[in-house]
Amino acid sequence: MPIIKLENIRHSYKVGSGSLLVLKGIDLSIEQGEFVAIMGPSGSGKSTLLQILGLLERPSQGKYFLLGKDVSDLSDDEGASLRSKTIGFVFQMFNLLSRTSAVDNVLLPAIYSGNAVPISKAKELLADVGLQDREEHKPNQLSGGQQQRVAIARSLINSPKIIFADEPTGNLASDQAEEILRKLSELNARGITVIMVTHEPDIAAYAKRIIKIKDGAIQSDEKNLNPKGFVSEKSAVPPSLNGNDYSHLPPKLSLLEIKENSLSALRAISANKTRSFLSVLGILIGVCSVIAMLAIGRGAQKSIEARISGLGSNLIMIWPFSSSAFHGGTGSVSRLSIPDVEEISHLSSHIIAVNGEVSGSAQVVYKDKNTNTEVDGDMTSFAPMHSDEPYYGRFFTQEENDEVARVAVLGQTVVNNLFGKADPVGKRIKINRVSFEVIGILPPKGSSAWHDQDDVIVIPLKTAMMRLGLNGWGGSIGHGGRYLNRMEVECDTPQSIDGVMSKIKTFLRTRHHLPAYKDDDFTVRNMQDIQSALTGTTKTFGILLGIVAAISILVGGIGIMNIMLVSVTERTREIGLRKAVGAPRRAILTQFLIESAFLSLLGGTIGVLLGIGISFMMTHYAGWSAIVTPQSILLAFGCSAMIGIVFGFWPARKASLLSPIEALRYE
Ligand code: ADP
Ligand code: MG
Does 474 lie in the same domain as 557? Predict the structure, then answer.
């Protein structure tokens, strides 16, 4: 049985709207162990014939039997599988992978064959072509002849039965050409069928059979009884017809393949550092801002939670304006006064404490230091209600409030700003030019992006109103304080809160002479209300964050997709070669998906590091609490790998669908 049998093979190319008939009925039969040269003038169809023989192109018409099996109509992947197991290619242009060592180039077809080939075999093959000391050389560090010898070693890695060589010496000087031809003769002597295309008689002279074609038809077919560089047959191993060769299933993804793909991705990325960096910038910025914003949001939430938990849950707050004004809209404003506090405290036996507060901002001076801060006037009940007992010094007393004493309790930030490390208790400071004695320091409560809870001074309510003229809403400016900004009521049990709230509402409506059809001109809230309002804010924040993340993911993904399309176009010839040596579609798809995943993970990693850095700096230099959680890091990594795979899919699929021979011819 001949190893190759062609029956009336015709082939035409589509050119424009017509078609060009290039092979016009070729009948050919080649036996195992032959060394055939196909000769003919340029354009006669030699390469086309060789591509059909090498399963790189399907004939338009006719039958092709390879190793006795009809292969005229194989699918792409079946062709790849059969090529990988039975065929070795040597091309005129060498087609080695750039930036890849000689030994890795030789090993390339092995990763697609599905059988484990040890690296020692690649080294042996290189030694066999005289390149034992060039294993680690890259193609650009080798001469043309050496590159072609690497290509021959590569064609042998899967122990092929046939080697196809298209003008293998076309790009070489004559002495180098001779080496290559001797090598082919030697391989033929070992039992491998060699089919070589050339247009030079000198070169065809090495073959044992010379077929001349012209205009797509065989003109002559003669034995060469005296081949040049003849090597007497050594241990001719007749190629076995192994049933395994016809397996139509492309090999599964192997560890070796993943390793090769990863290295090749890293080489491609590091060969274009600036370009790669610019293309992952979108993902980088997106991931970085998501990490930083999640950290700030988490920090803010924590400090709000800490503040609320310090308040105790049985608290009711009252503001002298309607709830629509509370939310920033227009609404009616009323007044809350000290007598109101007094009366409300008697409304129910469930009320255990009340507090009235005025607040404003003031200029505070100590010696040559000054700062602008919030000044709150409170009753003595403030400290226990808010778990705000000074950790150093003391709070003011009822007597001090009644006597309008000028005593102040400072928050930690004010202490830092005015006193640094010095002890403030007993010192005198000026608040809006009024002298006060510092009597204590409030426990630190922390700060978030939008509020520093420690930037505050607490003084007695009466002092604030009468000495500093602080006044709440509803009071007229300049007449000394009479009205409060806020009132707080503490109940004994959570169950009594609702009852107390409705009593307060009734009281205030009566007090303000509100007819039934008018809305409240005040707002009463308990801690549950406030907590759920804050949770709502956090949710809004989360949605905003999600939108930012989605936009940056989209932009980042398009960046990746764009650069992968460029990469696929640039490496079209490489894709052609990989397919020619046996890579199925799946393998090309995986290769480019791995590359885009690497690329976007690179962006993700830099983004995560930068995001952590920014959160750290905000905590340490701006004093905001920003908390980076492991979940947000995992999320960022997961997202960026996913972006790479999703947005890399289209370019990778495009690459996998290329026809090997068109890709190899790509300019
Ligand atoms: P040879 O290798 O003998 O020089 P080829 O087999 O490469 O010739 O080409 C044979 C003819 O087919 C040429 O006339 C060439 O122009 C044409 N041809 C080759 N490849 C294509 C193609 N992909 N599309 C259209 N025409 C082609
Ligand atoms: Mg040609």
Answer: no
Q: How many angstroms separate the CA atoms of 182 and 35, rounded?
A: 12
Which of 462, 489, 521 is the C-terminal boundary of a domain?
521
Residues 52 and 151 both lie in one domain: yes
What per-residue confidence (pLDDT) applies to 475? 47
Q: Please report the atom of ligand 1 found closest to the CA of residue 50.
A: 6
pLDDT class of 35 with cuts at 50, 70, 90: very high
Q: Which of 470, 499, 521 represents a domain boundary (last residue)? A: 521
Indicate if 85 and 64 belong to the same structural domain: yes
C-alpha 565 – ligand 1 centre gap (Å): 28
Residues 164 and 285 in one domain: no
pLDDT above 50 for 200: yes
User: Is 256 within the bounds of a domain?
Assistant: no
User: H or E stretch including 352?
Assistant: strand 351-366
CA of residue 303 relative to chain centroid, distance: 31
Both tokens assigned to 180: 């290559």
Contacts by 364-369, CB closer than 8 A, 24 or more apart: 364/414, 364/418, 364/429, 364/430, 364/431, 364/457, 365/429, 365/430, 366/418, 366/419, 366/424, 366/427, 366/428, 366/429, 366/430, 369/417, 369/418, 369/419
The reply to whether 464 and 557 lie within a common domain is: no
Instruction: Give the closest residue (by CA) to ligand 1 atom 15.
Output: 43
Q: Please give the number of the atom of ligand 1 that sits closest to the Cα of 46.
A: 3
Q: Which residues pair with 259 in a beta bridge?
A: none
Mean pLDDT of the 291-315 span: 77
Domain holding 137: CATH number? 3.40.50.300
pLDDT(170) > 60 = yes
Q: Count structural domains, the chain.
A: 3
Domain around 549: 268-305+534-665
Lowest mean pLDDT among 94-108, 225-239, 493-507, 635-649: 225-239
Of 12, 14, 20, best ligand 1 pocket probe by most atoms within 8 Å of the beta carbon: 20
- Domain assignment present for residue 152? The answer is yes
| pTM of the model as a whole | 0.76
The ligand minimizing its distance to the Cα of 52 is: 1
For residue 167, what are the CA distances in angstroms to 129, 140, 190, 428, 430?
19, 21, 22, 98, 96
**Ligand 1 contact via 15 beta carbon (within 6 Å):** yes
Q: 3-state class of 581 per DSSP? A: coil
In a shared domain, residues 56 and 198: yes
What rounded mean pLDDT belongs to the chain? Answer: 88
CB 130 within 8 A of CB 143: no
Is 245 domain-assigned?
no
Instruction: Establish if 14 belongs to a structural domain.
Output: yes
Q: Which ligand is nearest to the CA of 14?
A: 1
User: How many whole angstroms from 416 Cα to the centroid of ligand 2?
Assistant: 84
